[in-house]
């Protein structure tokens, strides 16, 4: 099958390499030194899904019309990337693999003639150097759209992806996006401190910050009438307990995430942007929680403070120590 992957970074590079490995004709888009490296030496994948070098076509935009496409840029880049490829995406199934709440909705608006499907990647991948991507934790991908059963396009795309990496079509995708937003409460602290997700979750005081932001975010979801979707051992029932539990008990969820991540350091996708001197997706993660809280007429001070700290590191390029984070966040955690 001809498959296009738009934005061959950590996630797009993983998907493209694994689909190439099972025999699909894959074409990717990339830019700068990543594009040059893929053209020169292929797209190299290592880590948890094994090693593979995919010698695949690469350009700044798709040069041929695929039968199925994945959009795998960061949230802030997706609208421009979709617009640049809109002509070849029209009329096909387009799978938007993106954290946050906005990706699928935006794609649907930009591509009214396509079958847009959302996807949530629970595995972790790192962009190590131009042309080289590594999977640091293996896990499932969940595909769907809306709050009912998955549309046929999601079922079909999941079947194709599942031949290369574990993928499932799920009910209540909208609720699952919210559950993933809770999982992504881990992203900010690595971006603020420069530590891996495992180091953050292993530090008692940083874990308290993650737990507080997670609890606040779950309550925002309930204030917005969300029914959390079931992914990766988290569901509406568990998150309802987390929302109300004392912090010492709610930290069981971040600790579970740490165990699931295994021992290969996972910087998370947000720290990877900081390391490359790029703007992060934080406005679509903790920032989205703040926006949703505002819509519900409540406040989300912990998520607002965390969003501001990530923007501060984006601006200054200087990480904060765990002590500094503790000092800055302490008034909000009391
Ligand atoms: N990494 C992870 O472990 C996980 C990430 N996610 C989510 O997946 C999505 C992708 O993240 P990730 O793979 O980490 O991000 P990356 O930054 O590693 O990859 C995105 C790639 O898209 C490229 N890109 C952006 N705009 C364009 C464009 N217009 N044309 C061509 N290429 C473009 C970027 O190039 P450039 O570098 O030049 O900007 C980059 O190579 C995000 O929403 C993220 O939150 C979800 C689960 C896990
Ligand atoms: C699942 C997780 C936390 C993997 O790192 C992720 O979604 C991210 O890094 O953005």
UniProtKB/TrEMBL annotation:
Q: Which family does it belong to?
A: Belongs to the ketopantoate reductase family.
Where is the Ketopantoate reductase C-terminal domain positioned along the sequence? 172-314
Keyword Coiled coil in record: no
If you read the UniProt record, what top EC class would you report for this enzyme, in one word? oxidoreductase
- Keyword terms, alphabetized: NADP, Oxidoreductase, Pantothenate biosynthesis
Species this protein is from: Leifsonia soli
Name the Gene Ontology biological process terms.
pantothenate biosynthetic process
Pathway assigned in UniProt: Cofactor biosynthesis; (R)-pantothenate biosynthesis; (R)-pantoate from 3-methyl-2-oxobutanoate: step 2/2
Role noted for this protein: Catalyzes the NADPH-dependent reduction of ketopantoate into pantoic acid.
Give the catalytic activity. (R)-pantoate + NADP(+) = 2-dehydropantoate + NADPH + H(+)
Q: Where is the Ketopantoate reductase N-terminal domain?
A: 3-147
Molecular function, one GO term? NADP binding
Name this protein carries in UniProt: 2-dehydropantoate 2-reductase
